Amino acid sequence: MNLNDLTIEEITEFADSPAIFQKGQQCYDNGAVDQFFMSGKGIKAKVEGKPGPYSVEIRTGRGNLTTDCTCAYSGEVCEHIVAVLLYAMLGDPEEEEEAAMVPPHGIPISENQFQQLFRGELYIEELFELLGQLKQKNNVIPFPNSKKMTVAELKEEIQEFFKGVQAEEEEGGNVFNDSFFSLSEPELPDLNVLFSQVKQLTLKEQIDVLWYVVTSGNLIFSQTGTVFGEVEIAEAVELFADRVMALDLEMPEKEMYLNSLIAAFDWPMFLNEELDNALKDAMDTLCSTEEELRYAIATLESCGLEQNSRDWVMEAYHTLGDGEKLVRLAEGNLETVEDYINLANYWREIEEDLPRSIEILERWIEDCTPKDWDDVKVWENLYRSRSPNISILLEDLVEYYAENQDQKNLYRLMMLWLRIGGLSVEFYQDFKAVANRLTRVESCKAQIRMFARDEVDELAQIYVNEEDWERAIALAQEVELPLEIQVAIAAQVKSSHPEQAIALYDQLVHSYIQKKTRPNYKTAAEYAALIRDIYRSVFNDPSQWQEYIDGLRQQYQRYRALQEELQKL
Question: If you write DSSP's letter for every residue of 259-325 in order, what string do you get?
Fold first, then answer.
């Protein structure tokens, strides 16, 4: 009996009795067959039973079949073996049932809905619901009972897929017809048919076809620099590892398959995040023993590690419990802030060595930050490109030194935070508190003024909070501050610095006039009234006020509504 060309008659004769065949057929129809793997050596599968799953093994050799099942049946060929043979011939019954429920048009609707559609009786909401279902189906219907495709035919299907998906994506991915009410959708390329067909091949043929998907995708990438079909390639990589495991190989027979995945680490295509994760998962699957892990590590290291392969090797060392080599590799390749954080986390969480963890974080400061602490320009790159990971690193250090009441290092870290993370009112309060304990408040304020950069609004608010009016006025004259801060400064300095207060109020007057609505004209007039009060009460010179208001009226003489508001002053 040939497992690749079974017939119902052969399976019926092979069963111990017609009753056993009927039970096996019912078992198959109920979807009890699971974890089905077929190779040139035979079939391995699990079949659900009342006490639990039974393991079925069917082996080929010299034209004969030998079978084994872990159930309690005392005969030769039980119902579970029959169910597995039916699965090998017919495929997954659940897929068959799904295909039978879908009309030939590929649109998953009932016969009654078809009739309503053609009579024009469907509501528009129902029509849109059908369109949504159509998109989910993607016009791909598996046919488990269709003619088995050969390896060559499947490879041709793979080539057509990549041609189709490349053309589709280069055209902008427009998947809808021009007609708004069209019920058909252009057929999108995918490999669902291939993935449903490939399991009918022997395991080695499956592996060959699945890896062909990967190499074909890489060929397109090498030509275009773009990943096409990343979802399908990722699935093929994962299935490749799964099918290799089903071969039940040991080293060195397994090396050729491991080498395929190891070589893929050097393919630029696998810098794609989804493919990178799929590749690492596949490596985890294949490296199921210490021998296999150490072989993969040695091979990757001999080829020269890049970031993605180094990450996997470090995880492999972690799996092996080889902390010494993990640390050696990590410390020799500290490049990004993430590298420092990951190594620090290893010392803190795995080795529970907090001081060593802090030492690694401090190394980032030593290795990656400028040495001149007072040159604003040399810090610009870190400030402009600051990442959340740098904040995480600094937070860990600040928390450590705060818990240990190490005020000097805490002050140093807060100066570093100011240079990289920028200024906020809340940060200033914390920084000032630490500086006060070290009697370095003036130095702290000088650092704040030096590294405020883009946060001038925060700096102005600090000046207002501390009633540092001289600096507040100077800052307001240099840059345009938020209106509420200008108001706060002008209100506080109108007695001590009346000319500066008038200048601030004048900015507000013109700012509100430019908004050109009656409520804004009214607000502008209110600020003009404050200028009037300063001229009269502080300078005791009404003539200067008259000169100011006359100039304002002349400048905006065509603004009738504004003139009415100014007339009230």
Answer: HHHHHHTT-GGGGSHHHHHHHHHHHHHH--SHHHHHHHHHHHHHH---HHHHHHHHHHHHHHT-HHH
Q: Are 55 and 70 in contact (CB under 8 A)?
A: yes
CA distance 185 to 168: 13
Which pair of structure tokens corresponds to residue 121?
């009786």
How confident is the model over 525-543, as pLDDT tens digits?
999 999 999 999 999 989 9
- Cross-strand bridge partners of residue 66: 59
d(CA 396, CA 400): 6
CA atoms within 13 A on the CB side of 334: 19
**Is residue 271 predicted with pLDDT exceeding 80?**
yes
What value does the mean pLDDT take over residues 301-316? 79
What predicted TM-score, i.e. pTM, was given to this entire model?
0.51
Q: Rounded to whole angstroms, how far apart are CA atoms 4 and 366?
A: 66
Residues across the chain: 569
Residue 36, phi then psi, degrees to nearest 5: -85, 120
Q: Which residues contact 268 (CB under 8 A, 6 or more apart)?
A: 221
Contact between 21 and 30 (Cβ < 8 Å): no
Of the candidates 241, 235, 273, the one whose C-alpha atom is nearest the C-alpha of residue 257 is 241
Helices (H) and strands (E) in the chain, counts: 29, 4
C-alpha span between 94 and 83 (Å, rounded): 14
- Contact of 254 with 211, CB cutoff 8 Å: no
**∠ Cα 339 342 343 (to 5°):** 85
- Cα separations (Å) of 548 from 6, 187, 519, 551? 104, 75, 22, 5
8 Å CB contact between 54 and 71? yes
The amino acid at residue 263 is A
DSSP letters for 33-70: EEEEEEETTEEEEEE--SSSPEEEEEEEETTEEEEEE-
**CA pair distance 553, 315, nearest whole angstrom:** 76
